[in-house]
Fold this sequence. Notes:
Layout: E1 5-6, E2 15-19, E3 25-39, E4 53-60, E5 69-71, E6 77-82, E7 88-92, E8 97-101, E9 103-112, H1 115-121, E10 134-143, E11 149-156, E12 180-189, E13 195-209, E14 214-218, E15 224-226, E16 228-229
Parallel strand pairs: 12-15
Antiparallel strand pairs: 1-16, 2-14, 3-4, 3-13, 4-7, 5-6, 6-9, 7-8, 9-10, 10-11, 11-12, 12-13, 13-15
Amino acid sequence: MSKSHLFGALSASILAFSTASSSAATFIYSGTLEHIFVDDGTGSYTGAMIGDTYSGHFSIGDSASDGTPILPCLNDECEYDFPGSSFTTSISDGVMTETGTGSIVAIWDGYDLETDDAAFINVLPGISWAVDTLLDGWLGDSVLDNGTQLGVGFITQDTNLYSSLGYQALPPSLTNTATSLAFFTIEETDSSGNTTFLGFGRLDAVSAVPIPAAVWLFGSGLLGLIGIARRKKS
Protein backbone atom coordinates (compact mmCIF):
# COMPACT_ATOMS: atom_id res chain seq x y z
CA MET A 1 0.00 0.00 0.00
CA SER A 2 1.54 3.29 -1.12
CA LYS A 3 1.49 6.49 0.93
CA SER A 4 2.07 10.18 0.35
CA HIS A 5 5.79 10.92 -0.01
CA LEU A 6 7.34 13.30 2.45
CA PHE A 7 9.48 16.18 1.26
CA GLY A 8 11.35 18.37 3.76
CA ALA A 9 11.72 19.37 7.41
CA LEU A 10 11.82 22.42 9.75
CA SER A 11 12.86 23.61 13.23
CA ALA A 12 11.21 23.48 16.67
CA SER A 13 7.57 24.39 17.03
CA ILE A 14 4.47 25.05 19.03
CA LEU A 15 1.31 25.06 16.96
CA ALA A 16 -2.05 25.84 18.48
CA PHE A 17 -5.32 26.52 16.71
CA SER A 18 -8.95 27.23 17.26
CA THR A 19 -11.62 26.63 14.67
CA ALA A 20 -15.30 27.35 14.45
CA SER A 21 -17.64 25.72 11.97
CA SER A 22 -15.32 25.86 8.97
CA SER A 23 -11.72 24.86 8.32
CA ALA A 24 -10.44 27.53 5.95
CA ALA A 25 -6.84 28.21 6.82
CA THR A 26 -3.94 30.19 5.42
CA PHE A 27 -0.48 30.33 6.90
CA ILE A 28 2.66 32.23 5.98
CA TYR A 29 5.98 30.42 6.18
CA SER A 30 9.69 30.90 5.75
CA GLY A 31 12.48 28.38 5.84
CA THR A 32 15.93 27.32 4.75
CA LEU A 33 16.83 24.79 2.05
CA GLU A 34 18.72 21.91 3.67
CA HIS A 35 18.96 19.20 1.05
CA ILE A 36 18.93 18.97 -2.75
CA PHE A 37 18.14 15.55 -4.21
CA VAL A 38 18.09 16.53 -7.90
CA ASP A 39 19.38 19.52 -9.89
CA ASP A 40 19.98 18.60 -13.53
CA GLY A 41 20.97 22.12 -14.54
CA THR A 42 17.96 22.81 -16.77
CA GLY A 43 15.19 24.01 -14.43
CA SER A 44 14.31 27.43 -13.08
CA TYR A 45 15.66 26.40 -9.64
CA THR A 46 19.06 25.39 -11.06
CA GLY A 47 21.79 26.92 -8.96
CA ALA A 48 19.80 26.88 -5.72
CA MET A 49 22.10 26.23 -2.79
CA ILE A 50 21.89 24.75 0.68
CA GLY A 51 21.19 27.63 3.05
CA ASP A 52 19.00 29.59 0.59
CA THR A 53 15.88 31.00 2.22
CA TYR A 54 12.33 30.67 0.92
CA SER A 55 9.02 32.15 1.98
CA GLY A 56 5.41 32.04 0.89
CA HIS A 57 1.91 31.02 1.93
CA PHE A 58 -0.34 27.98 1.77
CA SER A 59 -4.15 27.95 1.94
CA ILE A 60 -6.93 25.37 2.01
CA GLY A 61 -10.68 25.71 1.49
CA ASP A 62 -13.61 25.17 3.81
CA SER A 63 -16.65 24.19 1.75
CA ALA A 64 -18.46 20.88 2.12
CA SER A 65 -17.69 19.96 -1.49
CA ASP A 66 -14.00 20.71 -1.01
CA GLY A 67 -13.98 18.38 1.98
CA THR A 68 -14.77 15.31 -0.10
CA PRO A 69 -11.91 12.78 -0.15
CA ILE A 70 -10.31 12.50 -3.58
CA LEU A 71 -9.05 9.02 -2.77
CA PRO A 72 -10.64 6.37 -0.58
CA CYS A 73 -9.69 6.74 3.07
CA LEU A 74 -7.48 3.87 4.13
CA ASN A 75 -6.83 2.76 7.68
CA ASP A 76 -4.34 5.50 8.39
CA GLU A 77 -4.55 8.06 5.57
CA CYS A 78 -7.05 10.20 3.69
CA GLU A 79 -6.55 12.92 1.08
CA TYR A 80 -8.73 15.94 0.30
CA ASP A 81 -8.72 18.36 -2.62
CA PHE A 82 -9.35 22.10 -2.10
CA PRO A 83 -9.62 23.52 -5.64
CA GLY A 84 -11.37 26.80 -4.80
CA SER A 85 -9.88 29.64 -6.83
CA SER A 86 -9.94 31.96 -3.83
CA PHE A 87 -7.34 29.82 -2.06
CA THR A 88 -3.82 30.29 -3.34
CA THR A 89 -0.29 29.10 -2.70
CA SER A 90 3.07 30.77 -3.28
CA ILE A 91 6.81 30.35 -2.79
CA SER A 92 9.62 32.87 -3.30
CA ASP A 93 13.41 32.89 -3.01
CA GLY A 94 13.45 36.69 -2.93
CA VAL A 95 13.99 36.92 -6.69
CA MET A 96 11.56 34.47 -8.30
CA THR A 97 8.01 34.08 -6.99
CA GLU A 98 5.68 31.30 -8.09
CA THR A 99 1.95 31.13 -7.34
CA GLY A 100 -0.83 28.63 -7.86
CA THR A 101 -4.35 27.63 -6.89
CA GLY A 102 -5.75 24.34 -5.77
CA SER A 103 -4.21 22.22 -3.05
CA ILE A 104 -4.38 18.76 -1.54
CA VAL A 105 -4.21 17.87 2.14
CA ALA A 106 -3.35 14.38 3.35
CA ILE A 107 -4.20 13.42 6.92
CA TRP A 108 -2.27 10.67 8.68
CA ASP A 109 -3.61 8.87 11.72
CA GLY A 110 -1.15 6.25 12.94
CA TYR A 111 0.76 6.12 9.63
CA ASP A 112 3.34 3.31 9.60
CA LEU A 113 6.50 4.98 8.28
CA GLU A 114 7.65 3.21 5.14
CA THR A 115 11.24 2.64 4.00
CA ASP A 116 11.28 5.27 1.24
CA ASP A 117 9.68 7.94 3.42
CA ALA A 118 12.11 7.19 6.26
CA ALA A 119 15.06 7.51 3.87
CA PHE A 120 13.72 10.84 2.66
CA ILE A 121 13.30 12.26 6.17
CA ASN A 122 16.57 10.93 7.53
CA VAL A 123 18.77 12.96 5.17
CA LEU A 124 18.04 15.95 7.43
CA PRO A 125 20.71 16.78 10.00
CA GLY A 126 19.82 15.37 13.40
CA ILE A 127 16.92 13.24 12.16
CA SER A 128 16.90 9.46 12.51
CA TRP A 129 13.43 7.90 12.42
CA ALA A 130 13.14 4.15 12.14
CA VAL A 131 11.04 2.36 9.55
CA ASP A 132 7.61 1.39 10.99
CA THR A 133 7.57 4.41 13.35
CA LEU A 134 3.93 5.42 13.86
CA LEU A 135 3.12 9.02 12.91
CA ASP A 136 0.25 11.47 12.80
CA GLY A 137 0.43 14.26 10.25
CA TRP A 138 -1.05 17.08 8.20
CA LEU A 139 0.56 17.26 4.75
CA GLY A 140 -0.26 19.87 2.10
CA ASP A 141 0.58 19.67 -1.60
CA SER A 142 -0.01 22.25 -4.33
CA VAL A 143 0.92 22.46 -8.02
CA LEU A 144 1.92 26.00 -8.98
CA ASP A 145 1.09 27.73 -12.24
CA ASN A 146 4.29 26.64 -14.01
CA GLY A 147 4.00 23.04 -12.81
CA THR A 148 6.33 23.26 -9.81
CA GLN A 149 5.06 21.17 -6.91
CA LEU A 150 5.15 22.79 -3.48
CA GLY A 151 4.65 20.80 -0.30
CA VAL A 152 4.14 21.78 3.31
CA GLY A 153 3.68 19.44 6.21
CA PHE A 154 3.57 18.76 9.93
CA ILE A 155 4.28 15.25 11.24
CA THR A 156 4.68 13.92 14.75
CA GLN A 157 5.25 10.68 16.62
CA ASP A 158 2.51 11.73 19.04
CA THR A 159 -0.23 9.47 17.69
CA ASN A 160 -2.79 10.93 20.09
CA LEU A 161 -3.17 14.04 17.92
CA TYR A 162 -5.73 12.46 15.58
CA SER A 163 -8.70 10.28 16.28
CA SER A 164 -10.04 10.43 12.71
CA LEU A 165 -8.95 11.12 9.15
CA GLY A 166 -11.06 14.28 8.77
CA TYR A 167 -9.14 17.22 7.29
CA GLN A 168 -10.63 19.44 10.01
CA ALA A 169 -8.34 17.72 12.50
CA LEU A 170 -5.49 20.19 12.09
CA PRO A 171 -2.42 19.45 14.23
CA PRO A 172 -2.98 21.11 17.62
CA SER A 173 0.58 20.76 18.85
CA LEU A 174 4.08 20.04 17.59
CA THR A 175 6.21 20.80 20.58
CA ASN A 176 8.97 18.19 20.71
CA THR A 177 11.70 18.64 18.12
CA ALA A 178 12.92 15.09 18.68
CA THR A 179 9.56 13.58 17.71
CA SER A 180 7.93 16.25 15.50
CA LEU A 181 8.89 17.80 12.17
CA ALA A 182 7.72 20.60 9.93
CA PHE A 183 9.05 20.99 6.38
CA PHE A 184 8.71 22.40 2.85
CA THR A 185 9.57 20.79 -0.46
CA ILE A 186 10.07 22.02 -4.02
CA GLU A 187 9.84 19.67 -7.01
CA GLU A 188 10.19 20.92 -10.57
CA THR A 189 9.62 18.75 -13.65
CA ASP A 190 10.07 19.26 -17.38
CA SER A 191 7.46 18.80 -20.12
CA SER A 192 8.21 15.07 -20.22
CA GLY A 193 7.64 14.65 -16.49
CA ASN A 194 11.31 14.26 -15.61
CA THR A 195 12.39 15.82 -12.32
CA THR A 196 14.75 18.75 -12.92
CA PHE A 197 14.94 19.92 -9.32
CA LEU A 198 13.98 18.39 -5.99
CA GLY A 199 14.89 19.89 -2.65
CA PHE A 200 13.51 20.43 0.80
CA GLY A 201 14.26 22.17 4.06
CA ARG A 202 13.21 23.21 7.53
CA LEU A 203 10.97 26.16 8.26
CA ASP A 204 12.09 28.75 10.76
CA ALA A 205 8.82 30.68 10.98
CA VAL A 206 5.13 29.98 10.42
CA SER A 207 2.37 32.44 11.24
CA ALA A 208 -1.38 32.47 10.71
CA VAL A 209 -3.44 34.68 8.48
CA PRO A 210 -6.74 35.02 10.39
CA ILE A 211 -9.74 33.84 8.42
CA PRO A 212 -13.27 34.36 9.78
CA ALA A 213 -14.56 31.21 11.49
CA ALA A 214 -11.14 29.56 11.33
CA VAL A 215 -8.23 31.33 13.01
CA TRP A 216 -4.96 29.49 13.46
CA LEU A 217 -2.66 30.64 16.21
CA PHE A 218 0.92 29.48 15.82
CA GLY A 219 3.16 29.78 18.88
CA SER A 220 6.85 30.54 18.87
CA GLY A 221 9.40 28.04 17.68
CA LEU A 222 7.24 26.26 15.12
CA LEU A 223 8.79 23.17 13.65
CA GLY A 224 8.03 23.83 10.01
CA LEU A 225 7.64 21.10 7.56
CA ILE A 226 6.89 22.01 3.98
CA GLY A 227 6.96 19.77 1.13
CA ILE A 228 5.03 16.86 -0.09
CA ALA A 229 4.92 15.06 -3.34
CA ARG A 230 2.01 12.73 -3.44
CA ARG A 231 2.37 9.17 -4.59
CA LYS A 232 -0.56 7.31 -6.12
CA LYS A 233 -1.95 4.54 -3.95
CA SER A 234 -1.77 1.00 -5.15
